What does this fold into?
Amino acid sequence: MENRHYPRIRLSMGVELIRRGRHIGSAVTQDISLGGLALLLDKPILIPNDIVLLKVWIHGVLQTLRGFVIYTLENKSGIMLIGMSKEATRAYFNFLRDMNIPLRMVLDKASHQ
It folds into this structure.
């Protein structure tokens, strides 16, 4: 069961996955949100409760996002974004904003819960 706090955006982006400093595979996003990503994988390579790095191109710059694996089911995994650098956080936030997602409304809603 998913417990999303932010709206999903259907978007297909290539992602390189790294765990403990080693490249473990590639994935494609099924959807993204301010709080995380749903990834489609060829095989289940992500382990729930693990932390992974996700290399993704945002506005022509390779960014490293950090995520916590929430679940893995067959060929899909849910990732909650956590503890990213200020640069990566800013790039990701701006990327979503540039897609005309009403982030202010989303952030206001989350802060009042």
Remarks:
- The first helix runs from residue 86 to 98.
